[in-house]
């Protein structure tokens, strides 16, 4: 029983540390949290696959009677590739945040705070007033204008 308990305890500690890091305001710590959780899930998949066995691509080899499960190995390899993509995306967000604000900490969003303090009636009224249109000056992209005042 203790042989099965310690890998699960390790996975639980990795997940707990990952969640703790995800709750931080620093994007770098959020990235580390995502990586820890991803590694914990990979370990859980490998642990759930069962005991090691013969390689599944060979007919037979000396030592073990059963073949290893190739599905768990394929899932972990796919998860590693997906994690690399997510990590690259978070790094791009961190770089953009640092270029805009010279800090990698996520600040409070004043609009989200304002909306969370609205009552239900005010939220419905504000939703009806919006109409779904967006003012171009509110967009993140910088719009260069010509002399006539038209956007280019």
From TrEMBL:
Coiled coil: none annotated. The chain crosses the membrane at residues 6-23, 30-50, 70-95. The keyword Cell membrane applies. It comes from the Bacteria. This is Na(+)/H(+) antiporter subunit C. It is found in: Cell membrane. Belongs to the CPA3 antiporters (TC 2.A.63) subunit C family. It holds the Pfam family Oxidored_q2. Residues 109-137 are annotated as: Disordered. The lineage of its organism: Bacteria, Bacillati, Actinomycetota, Actinomycetes, Mycobacteriales. The keyword Cell membrane applies. Keywords: Cell membrane, Membrane, Transmembrane, Transmembrane helix. GO terms for cellular component: plasma membrane. It is a multi-pass membrane protein. It comes from Mycolicibacillus koreensis.
């Amino acid at each position: 029983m203790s042989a099965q308990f310690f890998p699960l305890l390790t996975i639980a500690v990795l997940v707990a540390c990952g969640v703790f890091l995800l709750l931080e305001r620093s994007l770098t710590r959020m990235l580390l949290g995502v990586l820890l959780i991803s590694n914990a899930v990979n370990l859980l998949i490998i642990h759930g696959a069962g005991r090691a066995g013969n390689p599944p691509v060979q007919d037979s080899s000396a030592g073990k009677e059963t073949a290893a499960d190739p599905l768990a190995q394929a899932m972990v390899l796919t998860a590693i590739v997906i994690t690399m993509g997510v990590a690259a995306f978070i790094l791009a967000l961190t770089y953009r945040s640092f270029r805009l604000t010279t800090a990698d900490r996520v600040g409070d969003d004043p609009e989200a705070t304002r909306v969370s303090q609205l009552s239900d009636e005010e939220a419905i009224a504000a939703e009806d007033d919006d109409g779904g249109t967006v003012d171009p000056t509110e967009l993140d992209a910088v719009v260069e204008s010509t002399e006539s005042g038209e956007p280019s």
